[in-house]
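Meet the record:
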Amino acid sequence: MEYEITYDVLKDEHKEEVANVYSITFSRAPWYSNYTPKDTLGFLEDAMRRKGFICLVAKLADKVVGFSWGFLVPDEDVRNITFTKIRKMLSDKGIDADTCFYGAVTAVLPDFQRRGIGTELITRRTELAREHGVTGLLNRTKNDNMVKSYKKVFGEENVITLFNDPILSDRMWYYTKLNNTKS
């Protein structure tokens, strides 16, 4: 099936569709979450208040089929992430959290997965994050396919496994040092 995916920054008219994509994607393995679109809209609105917030959407015609959002690593804890503790753990590994971008969520509807959409969202989001002067990316996931996508974009040797999350121990933190060249 031939299709053309377009990419755009988040606009108000995309928010509900992003919430739906999140709910559908994360209701499946390996997460099995039961977040409603209303819950997810709250997560998105909280993220939008974070310094350095970036969200890109992938669209087929006018339908959002994927998205990727993140923000600069905050000084305070956020919903189910103890950034105060994470910052100390990063410092112990010689990583300056003040120069890092946290890639919070990337999701693509199941029917559109394995087509390079998530990889393209990650790539484009990273280029925008560079404009904030970041030198490293942080990600937390339990999804092996997400880790594979990061390794595809940045090179296997550049994606470093850091530690298990102190709250959600089934999730692992990863770090990618960015060089000055495009990803």
